């Protein structure tokens, strides 16, 4: 690592001295200011092993000469003045220290809640993102099916998310750790109450009533608070291209502006309660049959005035202001929506000013290629079963472009959720601790015991077969 030849750590001054008088001055210094920041490997402040010279002098120049003198150097070696070796002492750090000063020179780690309400481009975000480990980034991005994972380094506890356009597919939560919950003694009816009770989107659109659309959004927000699920993947804003597209009940109508105006009201009211409205499926999701990768072709005018115009109002910060979106299974022309940078970067963020995060529809790595999608503007993968191991701590560390995209995705996800009801009740001094609940430990114990018994039974079976063959011989 690059280091300064000499640096100031402290100074002191005598009082006014009469001729022949002296005064002892003690200069104290903190070793944390000697630590160097390792941006490439340890990603924190470290103290290298080796000999450190401490010298006093009338200024840094004289102190350096005293250090050089202690190393045996003189003016013959090019120094402009002989130093005094008695004014320099050495101290040895016996081994590389990556932990003593790892929290930084101020001994302060930022919690995510610190940035609630801060602008997306607030400089403090960079310092907070420096705390997030590569493992945490990879986990947050690649494992996001109906949740976001905790990020312990910044005290983010994670979230629960749910479908969909006809209401939350969720039940009340009894988790007392969440700010909104019901009492555990509630009746089974209340505990198992389903929130999927709202009318279909075509029915709402047929009312031509924006106040009713706003009330629908209010209900979404209330359901979010009570169920404990922050993000609702709704409203659905794709157009009815045919009567048989398979999911018309999730989308308002065949008209772009009716869809636009209805979704703006629903989305804005949903987010007013701290929920995250994740509109879908952006964009061009025209059919359900064979939808995985189906190519939908438009000329640019048709795409902008129909499909994109339906979505535009919900995305714009001064209209719907959504902070989430789920992309489509389909291709825009020949390019899959999850890595269509023209859609996700140029239009969505560059033209419309969207600052939230994007997630794929149910993720398949052979359709939504991990590298291509992340670097094109996808921030998370709605993944449960597919292999997205290509995005991991090692791959991020070894690829500057991929790491930059992962850091950006982490920024967008955390920005979205710090400003949501997922962080209600969280204070700056809240610590998130990862624990394994007793029920999970019990299940793991049963699984281990079952595995051991299976191996034993298999062994006994093999022995019995061998013995029977011997008897037969």
Structure description:
With 473 residues, the chain is α/β, with parallel strands linked by helices. Helix content is 35%, strand content 11%. The protein contains 13 helices and 14 strands. It has helices at residues 60-70, 124-131, 134-142, 188-191, 201-206, 210-227, 256-272, 300-315, 341-351, 370-376, 393-397, 400-418, 438-472, and strands spanning 36-38, 44-46, 50-55, 88-93, 147-148, 159-163, 231-233, 276-282, 295-296, 324-327, 331-332, 335-336, 357-362, 380-382. The strands form 4 sheets. Strands 5-6-7-8-10-13-14 form a 7-stranded mixed beta sheet. The chain is extended, with a radius of gyration of 31 Å. The model has no long low-confidence stretch (mean pLDDT 89).
Short recap of the structure:
The chain is an alpha/beta fold. It is built from 13 helices and 14 strands.
Indicate the overall shape.
Answer: extended
> How many strand units?
14
By secondary-structure content and strand pairing, the structural class works out as: alpha/beta
Q: Major sheet: order of its strands?
A: 5-6-7-8-10-13-14
The profile of the biggest β sheet is: 7 strands, mixed
Sequence stretches where pLDDT stays below 50 over 5 or more residues: none
What would the average pLDDT be, to the nearest integer? Answer: 89
Order of helices and strands: EEEHEHHEEHHHEHEEHEEEHEHEHHH
Radius of gyration: 31 Å
**Number of H- or I-type helical stretches:** 13
How big a fraction of the residues is strand?
A: 5-15%
């Amino acid at each position: 690592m690059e280091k300064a030849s000499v640096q100031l750590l402290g100074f002191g001054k005598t009082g006014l001295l009469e001729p022949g008088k002296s005064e002892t001055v003690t200069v104290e210094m903190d070793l944390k200011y000697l630590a160097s920041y390792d941006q490439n490997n340890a990603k924190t402040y470290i103290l290298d092993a080796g000999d450190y010279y401490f010298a006093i002098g009338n200024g840094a120049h004289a102190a350096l000469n005293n250090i050089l003198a202690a190393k045996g150097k003189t003016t013959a070696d090019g120094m402009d003045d002989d130093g005094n070796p008695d004014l320099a002492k050495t101290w040895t750090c016996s081994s590389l220290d990556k932990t003593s000063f790892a929290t930084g020179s101020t001994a302060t780690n930022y919690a995510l809640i610190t940035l609630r309400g801060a602008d997306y481009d607030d400089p403090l975000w960079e310092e907070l993102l420096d705390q997030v480990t590569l493992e945490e980034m990879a986990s947050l991005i690649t494992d996001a099916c109906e949740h976001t994972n905790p990020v312990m380094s910044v005290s983010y506890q994670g979230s629960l998310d749910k479908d969909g356009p006809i209401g939350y597919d969720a039940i009340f939560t009894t988790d007392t750790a969440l700010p909104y919950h019901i009492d555990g003694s509630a009746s089974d009816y209340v505990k198992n109450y389903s929130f999927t009770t709202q009318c279909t989107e075509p029915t709402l659109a047929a009312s031509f009533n924006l106040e009713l659309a706003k009330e629908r959004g209010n209900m979404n927000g209330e359901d979010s608070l009570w169920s404990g699920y922050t993000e609702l993947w709704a409203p659905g804003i794709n157009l009815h291209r045919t009567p048989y597209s398979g999911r018309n009940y999730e989308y308002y109508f065949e008209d772009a502006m009716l869809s636009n105006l209805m979704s703006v009201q629903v989305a804005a009211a949903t987010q007013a309660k701290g929920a995250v409205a994740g509109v879908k499926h952006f964009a061009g999701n025209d059919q359900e049959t064979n939808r995985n990768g189906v190519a939908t072709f438009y000329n640019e005018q048709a795409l902008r005035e129909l499909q994109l115009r339906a979505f535009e109002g919900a995305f714009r910060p001064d209209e719907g202001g959504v902070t989430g979106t789920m992309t489509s299974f389909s291709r825009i022309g020949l390019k899959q929506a999850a890595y269509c940078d023209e859609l996700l970067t140029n239009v969505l963020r560059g033209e419309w000013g969207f600052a939230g995060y994007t997630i794929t529809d149910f993720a398949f790595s052979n359709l939504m290629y991990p590298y291509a999608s992340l670097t094109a503007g996808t921030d998370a993968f709605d993944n449960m079963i597919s292999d997205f191991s290509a995005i991991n701590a090692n791959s991020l560390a070894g690829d500057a472009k991929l790491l930059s995209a992962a850091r950006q995705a982490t920024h967008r996800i955390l920005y979205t959720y710090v400003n949501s009801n997922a962080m209600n009740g969280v204070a700056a001094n809240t610590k998130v601790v990862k624990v394994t609940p007793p029920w999970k430990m019990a299940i793991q114990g049963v699984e281990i015991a079952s595995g051991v018994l299976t191996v034993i039974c298999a062994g006994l079976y093999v022995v019995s077969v061998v013995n029977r063959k011997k008897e037969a011989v």
